[in-house]
Amino acid sequence: MVSKRLSSEAGHRRKFLAIIDDTPECERAVAYGSRRAKSTGGVLVLLFVIEPDDFQHWLGVEKIMREEATAAAKAALDHHASKAREQHGIEPELVIREGKPSEQIHKLIEDDQDIAILLLAAGMGKEGPGPLVSMIAGKGTGFPIPVTVVPQNLTDEDIANLA
Is residue 136 predicted with pLDDT exceeding 50? Predict the structure, then answer.
């Protein structure tokens, strides 16, 4: 169970959470979220989760790898944030977390009670829609907030008509 959402209370704004990763389709989730945030007066939150599994090395190597992963996360977030600014005139919130993506998504939703909708992008490849979409769709108990799955093949025009 997720805590009460505050996005409809005075002084709060509905937040749309988009997950940033190295998949090409995540750009579609950002485009949709940017458009929805602008059209509803909401806020777009971009989350990049660094998975710590790669850091099981000697301390010095682990530190360098963690710094490189953080730099890559910041670069990815900056790239998508600049598109949101340029194309839609919104200023997204940028969040970097370390851990398992599903756990960090849940923790951020619990920590920020203004997050009301999770946006995921679905890939079109033969390997399926992607690990996050599969994980969320396969959850037997459901997810704590509404999830919007944005297909990779939506054009900017499609998104403008839908969002």
Answer: yes
